[in-house]
Amino acid sequence: MALTALAVVDGHVLPADEATIPVTDTGLLRGDGVFEVIRVYGGRPFAFEDHLRRMANSAKNLRLEIDLSAVQADIDALLAEAGPLEGAVRFLVTRGGRRVGLVEVVPAHDRPLALASIEYVPPRVLDGVKSLSYAGNMLAGRLAQETGADEALLVTPHGRVLEGPTSALFASLDGTTLVTPPLSDRVLDSITRRRLLALLPGAREEVITREELRGATEAFLASTTREVQAIARIDDDELPAAPGPLTQAAADAFSAHVRDALGA
Predict the structure, then answer these.
(1) 229, 220 contact by CB (below 8 A)
(2) pLDDT, tens digit (0-9, with 9 covering 90-100), for 224-263
(3) Which domains does the chain have, with CATH numbers?
């Protein structure tokens, strides 16, 4: 069974093309549910407890009942069948009460990115919720690609920089320290972002405007699947270094942190 074709539905591991949920499930009809993507190295999930806690918090904020012990058991069963997986598990819980997990291949994210600014207003009602309602984020990425960029950079109508559609932004505005937009700007409480803030000396939250970002010496996106990926260009502005020294140091520190966390 190919790893990319493996799924678990309500505790049953099976080929993904045989996995089904009712078409009446409002997780499908209205995007009403929560999800997490967990990176897996050699069959071992990284930051598993963090992802479970965030899923529980998302479900609480969405007023969605969730059986976290069943979620954990489903993921354990999926990983046991997948073997020494190098990839990710996408897991979602729907309003219809379905638990669905999928094994995914993680594409290479080693090429510096070109970003395009896309105007975006975060929905306040979904603060603290990693929900299935991701159409806006996905559209932002497509709009950016239509301009020739690789990915979107979400920016408010007032010019405050937020994040990528599925990743956190870090930038150096002075060549010596890294900053990332604060959670108060309604960016996702990214697990990778949180780990990097703890790992990197001097890294901090700070409001970043689009104008300030034009003077950045380097920048990168960070997420579960990207880890740390350098940015080469934002709109028409070429960054001086991609990756720059702070970006490379962040990538090295995060890789070492993963190895330490997994005991490898």
Answers:
(1) yes
(2) 999 999 999 999 999 999 999 999 999 999 999 999 999 8
(3) 3-104 (3.30.470.10), 113-262 (3.20.10.10)
